[in-house]
Every structure is written in C-alpha cells, then in structure tokens.
Amino acid sequence: MDLVQQLVKVALLGATWVLYVMFALSVLAVAAMVERWWFYRKNARDSAALGPALTQVLKDGDDDEVAELLARNHSVESEVLHEAFAYRSGGASAFADAVDSALGDRRGKLDRGTTLLGTIGNNAPFVGLFGTVLGVIEAFSYLGTGDASAMGNVMGGIAEALVATAVGIFVAIPSVVGFNLAQKRSGDIENQVASLAKRISAWLKVRAAGQRIGAATRVGATEHDQ
Known about the structure:
With about 230 residues, this protein is mainly alpha-helical. The protein has helices at about 1-10, 15-45, 50-60, 65-70, 75-85, 90-105, 105-110, 115-140, 150-225.
C-alpha cells in the first residue's frame, strides 16, 4: 500500500518535470546534429579532390606518390586507404582485406552520435506521452477536492498535459531526420571508400600482371640465348 501511495505522489507531480527532460533531450539532439553536420562537411571538403588526384598518381604508377597523396589528405576515405595501402605488397586481395579492417576500425567515428539521435527520435514521443499521462492524473486529482472550480482545473490540467506529447513529437521529428541523414552520409563515405579501393585494387592487379609478363619475357629470352 505504501508503494502505491508513493507512486501516486510521483504521478501527482504532473508533467512539468517531463518537459525539463524533453528540453535536455532536445539540447543533446541539436548538439549531435551540429557535430555530425560539421564532421560530414569537413570530410566532404577533404575528399572532394581525392578521386581525381588518386587517378592521376595511379597513372604515374609510383607507390610513393600514392602513399604521399593518401597521407596528405585528411578525409576518412584517405585514412582507410592509406592504412590499407601498407599491405599492397601482398597483392590486391591483401589490400582489399586491409580496407575492410581499416573501415571497421572507423565505424565508431562514422556513426558517432547517430545512436543518440536514433534513441531520442524513437523514444521522445513516448516520454512525452508519459508526461501527458502524469498530467492527466494530476488533473483528475482535482475532482477529489470538492472545489466548485474543479472541473475547470481538470480541463486546464489536461490541456497542459497534452503539451508534453506535442513537445515529444516536436523533439522526435528532427532527431529522426538527423539520424537518417547521418546514416546516408556514412553510407556515402563507405561507398566512396569501396569505389576508390577497387580502383587501387585494379591498379595492383594490372601491375602484378605486367610484372608476371615481364618475368616470363625475361625467362623466355634467357632460354632463347641458351
């Protein structure tokens, strides 16, 4: 019985404190969205010139130039490719495996803040609904006071309680939008990494084929001389 009474006392606190919680969640959501926007904007600026520059240095066929380009660029794509390029001596297969490993290591960097946005977006309406329920409980508690204005207090309390649901939806919508945009940008970066990695893998395969042809030619020439 004491537990029930304590729960009733908590319920009678109303929806005001829930609104403070919603305000805190909105601040966290905005902070996460701003951080993600800044990160993706900076990464897009750094990676914009990477593709054309990489194509050019691959045409020149110089390992050192490729490594220098990847080290000089500060995008996520270049970080992954630069780390994987160290395994180029193992051929295209080893390079591809290294790309997958390096990209996995940066998963947290790509997805930072998105879990928070997704959690807020999915649960903010329920937090708001919880506040509405508490507000309705508080409003109906006025009926037991015997006051002539009790009905007016009930209706006013219900109106105030519904604000919590509205605030929950208001917080959830931009959070979900931010989550979806962040997921899309992370996917774009992963696709760019895969595209550039295939370009380097193709270059490694062509170079390996050329080396095999050159070696076979030299062996044939040696046998012919003998």
